[in-house]
Amino acid sequence: MPELPEVETMVRGLRPAFLGRFVEQIEVHDPFLLQGCDAEEFERRGRMVQVEEVARRGKWVAITLCDHRGMIVIQPRMTGGFWLVQPPRGEHIRLTFRLAKPEAKIWYCDTRRLGKIQWFASPEQAALAFARSHGPDALEIRLEDLTARLRRTRRGIKPALMDQKLLAGIGNIYADEILFAARIHPQRIAARLSRDELARLHSAISATLTTAIAAEGSSFDAGFRTVLGLEGGFLAQNATYGREREPCRRCGKPIEKTKIPGLIGRPTYFCPSCQPRRRPRGAS
Ligand SMILES: [Zn+2]
Fold it and tell me: 105 catalytic, yes or no?
């Protein structure tokens, strides 16, 4: 958390605020999050730069600057987020972008300081760094590629879906929702899924993520908020996450909560009736 839908929601909120605008100054309040660059250097590079594009790559927010000034990449990881309105907790502000004409501020906050901030010399360098540590974007991966990647792993399907090197963007909440939509038990072995199951999984990935983006992501506790400080609406309509013992939206049986190996501290929710542990007989 935030996962692909929350980062996409951030990017869609940031785009109109940033595009074509001049950043007069970037203030670094917490150099701890910077990678490969100190605060002084970051602030020096951040004077009077125009923003060309704001985009998402997996769970990265990528801000492309004009005039070959490179690309700022922010990874919100667990507790990072952007604010166009005054953030409620000033002590969690890590970066402030001061925009000129008209004056405005955009804040990056990070409660637990788990995020990362990098300045790449060019978008190509950022793309290379992304490719080294990530598979294809979950919204763009083709069925044949997904199939090939899952056939190569020995893991359970849920940890495989959450592996950013296999495909980028999915975390704990959406892995459960996707597997529910595809009617696949989270502990099935990824390499043993049938062709039908893989096709269902592939369409469930894009359907679930698209629905979650339309709802502006998932919010619980003090976690993700949109750039305007609002809660995302996905958890009001979702099927599994946080719904232990509540009736399955498909069959009415209670949703179960469990822990699965390799995902320490992260619960798994599923419907034991809609998502059977054994591979259905006669499946191709
Ligand atoms: Zn069910």
Answer: no
